[in-house]
Amino acid sequence: MTSVAQLDEVTRTELIERLRRIEGQARGIARMIEEGRECLDVVQQLTAMRAAADSLCVELVQAMLERCFLDGSPPPPQQLARVLKAVVRGGR
């Protein structure tokens, strides 16, 4: 299976930048909770953070598949099934 080390530097940099934005969102949400902000506001920010994480996950899977197909060696069906299952079930 493809590891992130096999992705090109630009893709890895973009993924890290997006992850750092999500990290900033998490810190902001923690601050909101510490400040006692409205529950609805916190939930909206959590939803936005979850959407960003989901989008990052899709981006990583897409990059992995592109890398596999560019190499001419698609992943074995069992590995592809594991990846899709992890995405659909949130890693469970």
Question: Topology of this protein?
Answer:
Elements lengths: L8 H27 L3 H32 L6 H13 L3
Order of helices and strands: HHH
- Give a quick account of the main beta sheet: strands, pairing sense, barrel closure: none
CATH architect. name: Up-down Bundle
- Count the beta strands: 0
Low-pLDDT segments, ≥5 res: none
CATH class, named: Mainly Alpha
Structural class: mainly alpha
Number of DSSP helices?
A: 3
* C-alpha Rg (nearest Å): 16 Å
Name the CATH superfamily assignment: Metal-sensitive repressor, helix protomer
Family: Belongs to the FrmR/RcnR family.
InterPro entries: Metal_Tscrpt_repr, Metal_Tscrpt_repr_sf
GO molecular function, one term: DNA binding
Protein name: Transcriptional regulator
